[in-house]
Structure formats: structure tokens, C-alpha cells
Amino acid sequence: MPAQPRQLTPDRSARHLFGAKMRAQRERAGMALEGLSDVVNISRSHLSRIETAERMPPPDLPPRLDAAFGTDGIFEELYRLASREIHPDQYQRRMELEARAQVIGEYTAQIVPGLLQTEDYARALFTEVRPWEATQQDFEEIEELVTARMSRQARLAGDSPLEYTAVLDEGALRRGFGGAAVMRAQLAHLAQLTLTKKTMVQVLPLESGGHPLLSGMLTLLTVDKGTRVAYEESITTGTLVEEMGSVVYLQRAYDLLRARALSPEDSAAFIRSAMEDLPT
């Protein structure tokens, strides 16, 4: 007797609802997983685990499903909800605000911001927090985190009216993750984003000395109706700052960093210099 498909609970989460809708549309079309695999160019086993909500859908799957089933964007809408569920509770509201933000400004001292990371850099970064021998479950969780991080970057490539600026301490360029090849690709990606229609990236050299934001990571979000909030992140926790006086202080500190940082053109040259310093 063939194994019964795993029972889904679409009222439990957006990810389960995504899997339930995917299975329902596939069965309505009289299509087996093997047939859908040929249409969307994703392995049968991967699709099976997405249907049973064991894996997060990759960001390029929802539009392919909508095209295959003629569902007019339903799967893309579900994906936007499901992708936020990967993040721990303390990040949920931050993710919701980021999705609505019209202006984002970020400062990081040690790592490249998530919206600017390459897939390999993100994977290496998530792997570093598991220095012990990783289990298969760890690897699967890492892949889900990487998928979620890449999905956030769609706003930088789409038609949304987002303005993004970032100040990166020189340490974020020099601290390697994943080896020289991964860092070279990451730095090349950064150099391309120093000045585009949506992004402005600046480097703050070490010779600039100390500043008020040196000990942490900061994200400033301007959402609809001009509401401004800040998000401060430490090693294991994040704090959403909504009190206006505190937000204004952090905004002034960020503006000061931007004024002291290299111009986008000089930042691109600095990043390319850091690439040349990497071992071959």
C-alpha cells in the first residue's frame, strides 16, 4: 500500500498553508510531483518537503507555481507571509517593518548587512555560529535561513520605492567568512552596490577612530506616513526602538557616520583594494 501523504494543518502557519495550496492545485491539475518537478525545475524530493511544510520554498518557486497553475500571484502572496515565519519572534516585527519601509539606513562594524550579502557569504556566516560538528538538522536550518535572507533582497531588485543606504566599518570588509573566494565575490557584489538607483554604500576606514555606534549594529527604518523606528542588534538579541527621542539620537549618530565615511566612489575603490589584498 502506498504511503499516505502527510496531513497538513493550513491553519497553523503560512508555510503550511503554502504547502496545502500547492498540493491542492497540483492534484486539481492531475499532476504528480514528478510532473510538477519538470515544470518548475525543482527536484521531486524538494517539492515534496515544501508540500509537507518541512522546507521553506526558494524565492524563485512562487512565480513558477503561479504560472504553472494560473493562480494570479496567490503563491507569491503566500510566500511573502511564509518567509517571515523563519525568523525568531523577536525579529518578527522588525521583518514586518522592513517589508513596509520606504527608507532604510544601516551601520555594521563586523559583518556585511543581510540585504547586501551574497548567498555563499550568508551560508558561511550562519555556519560560523555552529562551530561544533553540525547535524543534518543544523544544515537544513542553515539553508532555510539563507533562503529567508535572499528573499529579503528582492526589494532591492524590484520596483518598490525603497531607498537604502549603508555605512560599513572597514572591519566588515577585512573579516573573512567562507574563504578568499567567497569574500572576493562578496566584495565584488558590494562594489557594484556603492551607488545605484536604490543603494548607496559607504566605507568607514579604521583610521576614522571611534564613534557612538562602534559597539553594535543599527538599522533605521522609515515606514509609511513617515514613521521612523530603529533596530539595535547584539550577539543574541535585537531591540526595536520606537521612542522618538532615542530614534532621533540614533539617526544623528548615523548621519555623522555618513559624513565621516568615504564617498560612494572612494568606497568602491577601497572595496576593490580590499579584494586585491585577499590571498589568491
Quick description:
The protein is α/β, with parallel strands linked by helices. It has helices spanning 14-28, 33-40, 44-51, 61-69, 74-82, 89-100, 119-128, 136-152, 154-157, 170-174, 180-193, 244-260, 264-276, and strands at 103-108, 163-169, 199-204, 217-222, 228-233, 238-241.
Description of the molecule:
It is a single chain. The protein is of the alpha/beta class and 280 residues long. It has 2 domains: 14-84, Orthogonal Bundle (434 Repressor (Amino-terminal Domain)), CATH 1.10.260; 87-276, Endonuclease, Chain A. Helices cover 50% and strands 12% of the residues. The protein is built from 13 helices and 6 strands. A 6-stranded mixed β-sheet has the order 3-2-1-4-5-6, sandwiched between helices. A hairpin with a 4-residue loop joins strand 5 and strand 6 (238-241). Helix 2 (33-40) crosses helix 3 (44-51) and helix 7 (119-128) crosses helix 8. It is globular. The mean pLDDT is 87.
Q: Number of helical runs?
A: 13
Q: What share of residues is helical?
A: 40-55%
Spatial sequence of strands, sheet with the most strands: 3-2-1-4-5-6
- Could you please say which CATH topology of the largest domain applies here? Endonuclease, Chain A
* Content of β-strand: 5-15%
Task: Write down the overall geometry.
Answer: globular
The radius of gyration is 21 Å
Total individual domains = 2
GO molecular function, one term: DNA binding
InterPro entries: Cro/C1-type_HTH, DUF5753, Lambda_DNA-bd_dom_sf
Organism: Streptomyces armeniacus
Protein name: XRE family transcriptional regulator
